[in-house]
Specification:
Blueprint: H1 3-10, E1 13-19, H2 26-35, H3 45-50, H4 57-67, H5 74-90, E2 93-100, H6 102-106, H7 112-130, E3 133-141, H8 146-156, E4 165-169, H9 181-189, E5 193-198, H10 205-216, E6 220-223, H11 231-239, E7 243-246, H12 248-255, H13 260-269, E8 272-275, H14 280-283, H15 287-298, H16 302-315, H17 320-337
Parallel strand pairs: 1-2, 2-3, 3-4, 4-5, 5-6, 6-7, 7-8
Adenine binds at residues 19, 22, 57, 64, 169-170, 197, 199, 250, 278-279.
């Protein structure tokens, strides 16, 4: 193993862009299908993995939503979240902000309460057993209506203390940020932090990123790599100090490029890029693999790798004291690793 790989693997990290439903590994999917009496269109884990051959966002989303059919009970959501947090902990992730997609479950007849209680139980258990801290971000599905998003927001209110922010995901084509202007304004009024996906190489990518700034007022941008095509847009993102949660292996699976050189350019310009896993069970890499792939492809220096991870701690939606404490653990690690 190279020194750099070891340095990355042992580094205390934060993850800001991971869909909990996208962490459903084939083995657990088979277990849950068996437990719930659901027949899957695959005979084995290998056959399922071989079917994960995506060339764009819609082809990935088809597999992603199909995979959720095995998630029925509170116990299932708890098992899913426990598996992710255990894996993240094994990669020295100290803190994770996880997206979940309630509409993808309530439209299948699963109660909002079932979904969120299962996830919450796993978060509490992982924190007390492993020490890993996590928070939840509720995503609205942008290929559903704004009314449906408003209904999901309403359903979330009894659980307000369990959700730190709201986001927007699913198929971006024809579903611009502005479609959800009213629901995001309402979410802000309820005290939620705001972020949105601006997926990579979409039709109208830069226009959508501009809308997240001017019409929505997001505090972070998920992906957002295409901002680099517009100098003014980059300047505005930097002026506002917004972080971008980039997901290189996901980018590679849906666009054919890790966008590693773009990440390096962001760092060189002073943009607050971070590296994340997105849907690791489908794209085949958790946060360590994403950082290693980016470092190797863009020949990042150790300082640049540390900057990516420091950006994630700094852009997290934790209270300031907790943020400082986690950042301190990164600084101690880097100090102890100097010359190693
Ligand atoms: N849902 C889960 N992963 C997603 C992604 N990368 N983009 C849009 N929607 C998603
Ligand atoms: Zn995502």
């Amino acid at each position: 193993m190279t020194d750099m790989r070891r340095f990355i693997e042992r580094m205390p990290k934060a993850e800001l862009h991971v869909h909990v439903e996208g962490t459903l590994e084939p083995e657990l999917k088979f277990d849950l299908a068996r437990r719930n009496g659901i027949e899957l269109p695959y005979r084995s884990v290998e056959e399922m993995r071989a079917g994960y051959d995506f060339d764009d966002l819609p082809s990935f989303l088809e597999a992603y939503y199909e995979g959720m059919s095995v998630l029925l009970t509170e116990q299932d959501f708890c098992a899913l979240t426990t598996a992710y947090l255990t894996k993240a902990h094994s990669q020295n992730v100290l803190y994770a902000e996880m997206f979940f997609d309630p509409q993808a479950h309530t439209t299948r007849g699963i109660a909002y309460d079932t979904v969120i209680r299962g996830i919450r139980r796993a978060q509490e258990d992982a924190r007390s057993r492993l020490g890993i801290r996590s928070q939840l971000i509720m995503c609205f599905l942008r290929d559903m209506s704004a009314d449906s998003a408003a209904e999901a927001l309403e359903q979330s209110l009894p659980y307000r203390e369990w959700i730190v922010g709201v986001g927007l995901d699913s198929d971006e084509k024809g579903n611009p940020p502005i479609k959800f202007k009213a629901v995001f304004a309402r979410a802000r009024a309820e005290g939620f932090r705001l972020t949105m996906h601006c997926d990579v190489d979409q039709k109208n990518s830069t226009r959508h990123i501009r809308q997240t700034l001017d019409d929505i007022g997001v505090e972070r941008i998920d992906h957002g790599v295409n901002a680099l095509e517009d100098e003014e847009l980059c300047n505005e993102i930097m002026r506002r100090g917004l972080a971008l949660t980039v997901c290189p292996i996901s980018n590679d699976c849906v666009t054919g490029s890790l966008k590693a050189l773009e990440i390096r350019r962001m760092l060189e310009m002073g943009m607050r890029a971070t590296v994340n896993s997105d849907d690791p069970a489908y794209f085949g890499g958790y946060v360590n693999e994403n950082l290693v792939a980016t470092q190797e492809a863009a020949d990042l220096s150790r300082d640049q790798v540390v900057r990516l991870v420091a950006n994630a701690f700094e852009a997290s939606w934790l209270p300031a004291d907790e943020k400082r404490a986690l950042r301190g653990r990164l600084d101690s690690y880097v100090e102890s690793a100097v010359g190693a």
